[in-house]
Specification:
- InterPro entries: Acyl_CoA_acyltransferase, GNAT_dom.
- This is Acetyltransferase GNAT family.
- GO terms for molecular function: acyltransferase activity, transferring groups other than amino-acyl groups.
- The chain is α+β, with helices and mostly antiparallel strands.
- It has one domain: 3-Layer(aba) Sandwich (Aminopeptidase), CATH 3.40.630.30.
- Helices cover 29% and strands 24% of the residues.
- The protein has four helices and seven strands, in the order βαβαβββαβαβ.
- The chain has a five-stranded mixed beta sheet, with helices on both faces. It has a two-stranded antiparallel sheet with strand order 2-7.
- Strand 4 and strand 5 form a beta hairpin.
- The chain is globular, with a radius of gyration of 15 Å.
- The relative contact order is 0.20.
Length: 147
């Protein structure tokens, strides 16, 4: 069952993130306080999927009023290939349409073979006409990858 994510889901979502090999977690942005701030700014667009009484999938989804971005799209390995990812992405996209957001993007690591296959299957466009730039404003916000 897909539903809107709340801060009360944080501990279970944190466990899910930490169960996924190669998942990148940021020390500040992905802390309870960071996620609470994100969910306050985007109260209806992030989702979790619950199966067998536990959270097995999650997406952080937010927008700036013009464009949306999906972050930390994941499904527990045991529950993959059951349409959960597709349901969650559709849920997020419907919520974004309700807020009159017309475009959504995401970043996927080149090494994320499973994730990239998923996005290709979902018919998302892989852009080859632009570069991605970023600038760290907080050097304490370190990314650690789950082994």
């Amino acid at each position: 069952m897909v539903r809107v994510m709340t801060i009360e889901d944080y501990d279970e979502v944190w466990e899910l993130w930490n169960s996924i090999h190669g998942f990148g977690l940021r020390s500040v942005d992905d802390s309870r306080e960071g996620i609470e701030r994100f969910l306050r700014r985007n109260p209806t667009t992030s989702v979790v999927d619950i199966e067998d009484g536990k959270i097995v999938g999650a997406i952080l989804c937010g927008h700036d009023g013009r464009r949306a971005c999906l972050y930390h799209v994941c499904v527990s390995e045991k529950y993959r290939m059951h349409g959960i990812g597709k349901k969650m992405v559709s849920f997020c996209c419907e919520k974004l349409k309700e807020e009159q957001i017309n475009k959504v993007c995401l970043n996927a690591f080149v090494t994320n073979i499973v994730g990239n296959k998923f996005w290709q299957k979902m018919k998302w466009n892989l852009r080859d006409d632009m570069y991605y730039y970023d600038l760290a404003l907080n050097t304490e916000n370190k990314t650690v990858f789950v082994p």
